[in-house]
Amino acid sequence: MGASREWLRKEQRILALLHGPRPDCDQAARLLEELAAAPGAGKVCDIAGLYSELADAYAGAGRLEEAIVAKQRALQAGLRSVPDGRADIAEYLLRLGRREEADQLFAALAAEYPDDVWLYNNAGMAYQAAGDHEAALRWLTRGLELALATGDPEGLVAQLSDLRRESLAALGRPHDELEKRADAFLEEHDRLDYPDHLDRHALAEHQEPGEALPPLVSDRQQVQSAVAWFPPGELEAALDRWPQWREAPEKRSYEAHRRAVQNALVRLNGLGQNPALAPIKVDELVEWARREGRDPSRPESVAAYAALIAAQGRTVSWPPGRNEPCWCGSGRKYKKCCGGPEADWPEMLP
């Protein structure tokens, strides 16, 4: 138990070094090497995820060679992501000016994962950022065609279309037939459900004078599900108060917690539940539980308190815009953090 606790402390230290006001990638890398070398640490800590975080930090600092090495270590440690983590390496190669290597790696990934719409999305963004709108357009076209053909299970049609239109504009080209298809698709899927599957125009024809139409079932202002979220600092306070929480994989660290929260939000959104984040402050949770005669450490108590936060209108809306700061507090854009290609987070280790 002592070793596990020390490993978890080291994991928290690594994350603090990577996401603090002055990130220290080199110190984080040294601690991560020590952690990865410790027998059994991989069963307690997310070594692959930490190396991936390190790669992101190096890339954010413009240290792309180190970012490539860190991402390779993440893959060796068993990183599972969508798209494959090698897509990040291809992006780094592109940013380094190693165009031929990047082209070959992206092409190999497309041959290996021809149905991965996230790959086409990320490749398109990478080439677009590199200023090659012709290449970006090819990748984004393939991605948009795939998303439309499959009914957009990943919810990427809007983003792919937006990115593609940026490249079309940069190339001085008008919107084409594919963009018309995307518009029609989004218009169809933006229609909101009403009782008896009637559309709003049909309801209006049959309503009595002065009678209000029924509310929109999927009104984004009506939060149907609130996901409990312990912001940075609050989870650590909770773990200090209730050490037994560390036995739950999704609460071993803030990294694991934010992944679990993002997964829950994505799942609920897919079910049409309009989820939002319910930020939990430990002291307030404890005081509420005292008044209600509840045990604040129990999951059902946390869920009930999250529901109360939602009822009081104190939730944080989700998802943020793709270019807005991520909800988790990392300081990165949502599209480069929880809303990026690793939004389909792997399950935590048991």
Automatic annotation (TrEMBL):
Pfam entry (one): SEC-C
Gene3D superfamilies on file: 3.10.450.50, Tetratricopeptide repeat domain
InterPro entries tied to this protein: SEC_C_motif (IPR004027), TPR-like_helical_dom_sf (IPR011990)
SUPFAM superfamilies, alphabetized: Sec-C motif (SSF103642), TPR-like (SSF48452)
PANTHER family: ADENYLATE CYCLASE-ASSOCIATED CAP C-TERMINAL DOMAIN-CONTAINING PROTEIN (PTHR33747:SF1), UPF0225 PROTEIN SCO1677 (PTHR33747)
Protein name: SEC-C metal-binding domain-containing protein
